[in-house]
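Take a minute with the sequence and C-alpha cells given here and flag any C-alpha cell that looks odd. Thanks in advance.
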Amino acid sequence: MTVRGGVLTVIAGTLLLAGRAGADTTTVTFDSGTGGWDGVSGSGGPGSTIEPTGGNPGANWRTVFNDFGLTFTNATAPFAQDYTQFASITLSIDVKVNDISFFGSPVTRPFLVELRDFDSADPGLPWASAWFKFDDIGSDAYGRWTTLSVTITDPLAAALPAGWRGYGSEDPVTFEPILPAGVTFADILGGFDEIAFTTFEPGWFFGFTDFDIQLDNITITTTPVPAPGSAALLFAASALAARRRR
C-alpha cells in the first residue's frame, strides 16, 4: 500500500509539472475585436475594418488601401513580450489576397513578421529589429486563405537563425540592413517593443500600390522552459510504476 501511494504521488506530481509545461496559445479571430492589433487608416481608402463574414471562418480583418505598403502592429502581450523566457515561440497568420496591383497590373509584395525595438537602432533609423520573410504574396498564389507560420526554437541565440534577418544598421560595403553592432537576436527577442506584420521589407522601396487583403487567426503559441528536474522526476515515476507492475 505504501509503494502504491508513492507511485501515485510521484505520477501526480509529474502530471502537474507536465501540465505547467504545456504550450499556451492565443488566437485573435476578430470575432470580438482586434485583440490589440492596429491597422491602416488615412486618405488612401477605407483602411482596416473588421468584417463579420468571409473569414477563415467568421469575422476577419480586411484592408482596402492605396499606399507604399501595409503594416499591422501590436504592442500588447502576449504578442509583444519577453520571448527569451520561453523554450519556443510560434507565430502564425491566415492571409487572403483579393488584389495587389500597381497601376492596374497585378503584382506581388513581400510579407513578413518583424519584432521592433525602438531603443537600439543606429542614429537616423527608427528601430532595430529581427524579421522573417514568409513569401511574396499576390492574388494568384494567395487568392484563397493561406496560413503562414514561423517557429523560434532558440530565443536565447546570439546569431540570427536561418531565415531571419536584422535591421537597425547598414552593412558598410553592401548597404544591406543588418542588426546594430553588439545587438544579438536574443537582445531583440528580450526587449522588443512591438510586433508587426508588414509588406515593407527592409532595404526595399515600392511605389503606391492598391491593396485589398484579408487577415484572420493571428496566433502566438509559447512553450515554457521545462522546470528543473522535471525530466528526472518523469523518469523516476516511470521506473517506480514499472517496478510495481513487476
